[in-house]
Amino acid sequence: MRKRIAVLTALIPALLSTTIGAASAHPAPPAPPAPRAVVTLTYDASRAGQWQGAIQKAVQIWNDTVHNVRLKPAATPGSADYTYRATSGWPQSTLGPVFPGRRGAVQLGQQAVNEGYDVTRIAAHETGHILGLLDTYNGPCSQLMSGHGPGPSCTNAKPDATEAARVDRNYANRTTPKPTHPHQVIIDIWSTPAPTKTP
Questions:
Q1: Residue 155 domain-assigned (yes or no)
Q2: What is the pTM of this model?
Q3: Greater confidence, 81 or 16?
Q4: pLDDT tens-digit profile of 124-152?
Q5: β-strands 185-187, 69-73: how paired?
Q6: 74 in a domain, yes or no?
Q7: 163 carries an active-site annotation
Q8: Is 139 within the bounds of a domain?
Q9: Signal peptide position in this chain (predicted)?
Q10: Each residue of 77-91: b (16+ CB within 10 Å) or e?
């Protein structure tokens, strides 16, 4: 019995050193990926008048929804990457994606408000054009870029998952590409067409 105990006593340190040696032979787990740099776009809303509140909500919605681009007020109006301006006509925007150093413009037109459309939805939709999204007027209310398509009762101002993913793809490389749509402006007529009469 004493011989067995002596043998076991001799084996235990040997087994432990083998286990420890085997564990140290495994490579360390890979380091987590470095956080992605985010493209920051600055805007000037000093000429947006009564749209200020709607712009703040729209910007917050986009900042909460996408990951590769962030919108923030410019330090000085002349340094902004894009501007918001109140107008009396129909809303319209530069079609992006706008990148730092390029100039874009959003005109927030009163005619859409007169037609009964929600001001935050309008501001968020027009900002979507700045970020490179096209209109999808035939889409449901859950799609921000369906714009006036679902009618004035639609007040959704949040992009859906597909729209958010498109914007993230537009800014994924964090480099300034050649403009996809140079100087193209989208004019959104937020008016529900009258139903056509059948004879």
A1: yes
A2: 0.76
A3: 81
A4: 999 999 999 999 999 999 999 999 999 99
A5: unpaired
A6: yes
A7: no
A8: yes
A9: 1-25
A10: eeebbbbbbbbeebb
